[in-house]
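Deliverable D5.2: sample structural annotation.
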Amino acid sequence: MRKNRTPSVNGACLGTDLNRNADLAWGTEGASDNTCSQTFHGDGPNSELETQAAMAAVEYVQNYTNNGKIHAYVSLHRFL
């Protein structure tokens, strides 16, 4: 399963594909507005807690460490 288990405000199915929830290019190619789709992009950009936490971590690194340089960012997920 690609999605988290958060209920959607606008639909009957659970979950948001966190890979498609970030503000950058939100709702563009490959994302779906159908809440039952495995590629549902969420109710809005950065609407999920997991996405917000990842964005906060990146912003922290940019603002407070390594002179604002991020050397690598790795995101893993698995598909069953």
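Annotation notes: The mean pLDDT is 87. Residues 49-64 form the longest helix (16 residues).
The annotation will be released with the project's public dataset once the embargo ends.
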